[in-house]
Design goal:
heterodimer; A: alpha+beta; 7-stranded mixed sheet; 3-stranded antiparallel sheet; 12 helices; 10 strands; B: alpha+beta; 5-stranded mixed sheet
């Protein structure tokens, strides 16, 4: 009975010693155990009430405990004294700033393109690039946008000479790819495009696009919807909703404009989405058979879907950037945020 | 185009709330971009895509609403009370440009302000009320989509109309007060003597209908869209009429529109209606499109029944025959229906895009690498290395001004010009990344940023041997606000270090930096970067006069590297090299020598004297100033000695080190410290 108590007291004492930091606490602890009215003193008093036969063992155990506590408290005292001594205190001011290393960053457009490509790559799409200086045929005619037709309105381009121009979308790369490759395939195309737009907070004469194209003998609009849903959820978050609105593009039929539920207000209406609750982010549709004909594919044997989006717009929505010109001014304080 | 909801409801009996209708139309492909409540009416601004010219009228939109809501279209009844037999003769000289021309004379009209209901309708859709007759023509155009025109008969010389191409040199003053110089490519409506109007586009001022007019000529015609478009572009004249002709009008309703206008004019402006004279021929080609129901479901991924498909098409006014293979005839106003994909789109949008299910496609993963461009891993590693080294990636414009090129003294050879830039800033395609880099430095300085460390890995463009080239180039720039100091902390060394880091981590063995010249860089601070025979690029400190031109004051160094050369010699395969088994010893050596003695020569000598036992030579410091002679500098180096097969003894090391020390003294007349 008594012996058990001693073991407990020993363990308790050691535990208390570990947390002692100051000389004062140490003194208090010494008094608690070794003082005139301390625990050891108490224990000695209890010998009298123990059964006679047990008294010698009890007494011996108490003495052992006292010796042990003496030793441990002495060690504790050494430690506490050393800790509190003037020599061991540091005299540097550690509240001064740390010396970090300034990392460089990838441009937010590069990051956005990489993030988006990764999502499509995981779905099985390969990434293709192509020239920025293009022919009128690849940029317009092959995409069912003939000259002298109202469908060419709104497709202004920079011309170099004769039929050479700067591509106004990345679709020409799809034309090139289809001329060199057979179905089935799934690709995304990224790169710079150019349009003679006056530069302001939401327009730039140079920007980046990513377009996707999947062609096989049995691709459907349902597939297009699913692929875009998967993309939207992975890029913008699980809660987003998509809305497909009928529209017109010369190179797709049926065509759609795809809206995502507003990233700021979640669809309730705010300034960013002009109170609509939706943000237009993509154009998409089933490839128009005239496009297949232009590249030598048989529209009776294959069909395909295509989609496209402007990278700057997507990045601006995702990161809350309010002026497209920031991407090309390259202010270090802007670049360092990404 | 503006649509008045109140007006719309005259053609279709719909009671749904305006906001709801807006949504229904938008989700069916007729995008409503704005909605205003004006005068207890709802005015929608709709964006009509080029493939649906049939939506450019109230009846057209009403038809769509009827199809979407399962209602019937109510067209106004028209009856023309012809009272006179007379008319005018019409000759069409160019039947390619004008396919059909219908004319009617209305005698003794009373021109005056339009009745209130007409004025309101005209103003509701954003047009100006002119007078009753002109307003009626605009009203019928906005109602049916068919453009009309009226002439003051009194101004028509010779009482005949000739539809012909203009002759070069003819002029025409239009009703918008502009005078146009005509060419033989412009179709005009003329009388015996002169042109009266720009066909299908705008009337002439002289034959304008005004308060003095007594008899009017009502024109209702069909013009070739291409010919209208060409004239619109050439003369810079456009109108609501030309807009509709360019996109296509409903050939089935031309005469209805003519009758509608005539009866309204008789009603409102009084006047006696003469006979109608039709010249030319309206082809009402309603050709059939074959559609397999199975194909619809294949393309959309739906499971629509033949009955569903037929119902949708019939609701749109199409004539449908068959059951699994359909023969579909589209009405005259659907000029966009040519092939089965056009029908599939109609079915999809009326059914509702939102009802089409989601299904993951089977994507065949070929054994292609994810990036079909072999440079991707090299591009990524360059960016990774440079960002780790503290450089931020920039993207600058591919088009720049010629002035910017001149400012940097870069050669204009092969520079590609843009034929139609919007401003000077888009005159040429950059043939170097350097001007853009300096512009970024300049911009940042103007925003009080004291240190700029950037790189760009991007295309430059040039013409060579009649071919347009696009090559990827690498430009690394370091700018420090303080001026150059006589020390090892100048920008040129940061750039050199960046290159050295890049080289080391791209598996490129030895590179040599050789003195070179470049108009952008300071003489004596320009180095060509070579790897054996490959010229990788050039680095240097930018000349102060060029820095001044960019308002840059501070120490700026740039590297301009040819990415193609770099990737050719890069080797990203890693191969393990055994760790050394024996410890190293080092000896520091400090000496002063003339500052014309180059570091690379010192290193050469040390290696020669030390032989295989020298593992590395570390640069410790350079010192100039007190204690060192003028035109001399003191260098401190650490030589690392290690043998591959044993631990070197102090004596062995000292012995080799002595010969190194002696060599330095002898070769460079150095003074050991």
């Amino acid at each position: 009975m008594g012996i058990e108590k001693i073991k407990v007291i020993q363990a308790e004492a050691l535990k208390e010693m570990i947390s002692v930091q100051s000389i004062e606490d140490l003194e208090n602890l010494k008094i608690k155990y070794l003082g005139r009215k301390g625990i050891i003193a108490q224990l000695f008093k209890e010998i009298a009430s123990a059964p006679t036969l047990e008294r010698p063992a009890f007494g011996e155990a108490i003495n052992t405990l006292k010796k042990s506590l003496d030793e441990k408290l002495a060690q504790c005292e050494d430690r506490v004294k050393a800790y509190n001594s003037a020599e061991s205190k540091s005299n540097i001011d550690v509240t001064m700033p740390g010396i970090g290393c300034e990392l460089g960053t990838l441009h937010p457009i590069t990051k956005t393109i990489a993030d988006i490509c990764k999502i499509f790559y995981h779905m099985g799409f390969s990434v293709v690039e192509g020239p920025e200086i293009e022919t009128e045929f690849n940029n317009f005619d092959a995409l069912n946008i003939p000259a002298d037709h109202p469908s060419r309105d709104g497709f202004d381009t920079f011309y170099i000479k004769d039929k050479w121009l700067l591509r106004s979308h990345t679709s020409p790369v799809q034309i090139r790819y289809m001329k060199e490759n057979e179905a089935p395939f799934a690709i995304v195309v990224t790169g710079k495009v150019f349009r003679p737009d006056a530069v302001d907070a939401s327009h730039s004469f140079m920007f980046h696009q990513i377009e996707g194209l999947m062609v096989s003998d049995k691709v459907s609009f349902a597939n297009l919807k699913q692929v875009l849903y998967k993309f939207a959820k992975q890029y913008f978050g699980d809660d987003v909703k998509l809305r497909f609105r009928p529209h017109f593009f010369p190179f797709t039929e049926p065509s759609a404009e795809v809206d995502v539920s507003c990233l700021i207000c979640g669809g309730n209406g705010c300034r960013v989405c002009s109170q609509k609750g939706w943000l237009e982010i993509l154009g998409a549709g089933m490839v128009n058979p005239n496009v297949f004909k232009a590249v030598g594919f048989n529209p009776q044997k294959v069909n395909g879907f295509a989609f496209g989006m402007g990278i700057e717009r997507i990045a601006m929505l995702k990161y809350g950037i309010d002026d497209i010109r920031l991407f090309f001014e390259n202010d270090m304080r802007f670049l360092r945020q990404f | 185009m503006k649509i008045s909801y109140k007006w719309l409801r005259e053609y279709v009996n719909t009671k749904i709330e305006a906001r709801k209708l807006l949504n229904i139309l938008t989700m069916a492909g007729l995008e409503v971009t704005s909605h205003k409540k004006i005068d207890r009416d709802d005015i929608f601004e709709i964006e009509v895509t080029p493939n649906r010219p049939d939506w450019l009228s109230h009846i057209g939109v009403a038809r769509e609403v009827a199809a979407l809501q399962g209602k019937t279209l109510k067209l106004p009844e028209v009856s023309v009370k012809q009272e006179l037999e007379s008319s005018v003769n019409v000759t069409i000289k160019d039947i390619k440009s004008c396919l059909f021309y219908s004319v009617r004379v209305i005698y003794n009209v009373k021109i005056g302000p339009s009745p209130k209901w007409l004025q309101k309708k005209i103003e509701a859709v954003g047009l100006r009320s002119i007078n009753n007759v002109v307003d009626i023509t605009n009203f019928v155009m906005m109602e049916t989509g068919q453009p009309l025109h009226v002439f003051d008969m009194g101004k028509v010389e010779g009482k005949e109309i000739i539809v012909r191409n203009a002759e070069r040199g003819e002029k025409l003053l239009l009703i918008d007060e502009t005078e146009k110089d005509l060419t033989e490519r412009n179709l005009v409506i003329a009388d015996a003597k002169k042109p009266l109007a720009l066909a299908g586009i705008m009337g002439g001022k002289t034959s304008e209908v005004g308060i003095e007019t007594k008899d009017i000529l009502l024109e209702c015609a069909l013009f070739n869209p291409y010919s209208i478009r060409k004239t619109v572009q050439e003369l810079g004249a456009a109108s609501e009429s030309s807009y509709r002709f360019e996109r296509g009008v409903d050939t089935g309703r031309i005469l209805y529109a003519s009758d509608r206008a005539a009866s309204l004019i008789a009603d409102i402006a009084k006047g006696k209606i003469g006979a109608r004279k039709n010249t030319g021929y309206v082809e009402n080609k309603m050709f059939s499109v074959l559609l397999e129901c199975a194909k619809v479901n294949e393309v959309l991924g739906t499971t629509l029944s033949s009955a569903d498909i037929r119902r949708i098409l019939k609701g749109l006014g199409f004539d449908v025959r068959g059951s699994s293979l359909l023969e579909v005839k589209a009405p005259s106003y659907r000029i966009d229906i040519e092939k089965r994909e056009d029908l599939i789109e109609e079915i999809a949008r009326i059914y509702g895009y939102s009802k089409i299910p989601l299904a993951m496609p089977e994507i065949v993963v070929t054994d292609e690498k994810p990036y079909i461009k072999e440079d991707r891993d090299k591009t990524d590693i360059i960016k990774s290395i440079l960002t780790s080294a503290g450089y931020c990636e920039t993207i600058t414009y591919s088009l720049i001004s010629r002035d910017l090129v001149k400012k940097t003294r870069i050669s204009e050879q092969g520079l590609i010009s843009i034929r139609n830039p919007l401003s000077k800033e888009q005159e040429v395609m950059r043939n170097s990344l350097l001007p853009g880099a300096l512009k970024v430095v300049s911009y940042n300085i103007s925003r009080q940023i004291n240190s700029v460390k950037i790189f760009e890995l991007s295309k430059i463009y040039f013409e060579r041997d009649s071919l347009y080239n696009e090559d990827v180039s690498l430009c690394i720039t370091d700018y420090k606000k303080r001026g150059k100091v006589q020390s090892h902390s100048n920008a040129i060394y940061s750039i050199k270090g960046a290159i050295e880091t890049l080289i080391k981590n791209m598996g490129i063995g030895q590179i040599q930096f050789e003195k070179s010249d470049h108009p952008l860089f300071v003489r004596g601070e320009t180095l060509a970067v070579l790897s054996d025979k490959h010229m990788l690029g050039i680095i240097g400190t930018v000349n102060s006069d060029i820095l001044d031109a960019f308002d840059i004051s501070g120490d700026t160094a740039i590297a301009d590297i040819n990415f193609k050369e770099l990737r050719t010699i890069a080797d990203l395969k890693k191969q393990f090299v055994r760790l050394p088994r024996y410890p190293y010893s080092y000896r520091d050596i400090s000496f002063s020598s003339a500052d014309t003695v180059l570091y690379k020569d010192i290193v050469s000598l040390i290696k020669k004297k030390g032989g295989a036992l020298i593992e590395d030579i570390e640069f410790l410091s350079e010192y100039r100033g007190r204690g060192v002679e003028i035109r001399e500098r003191s260098l401190a180096l650490r030589i690392i000695y290690r043998a591959k097969d044993k631990t070197l003894t102090d004596e062995e090391v000292d012995s080799v080190n002595k010969s190194v020390r002696d060599g330095i003294v002898e070769c460079f007349s150095a003074t050991l410290r």
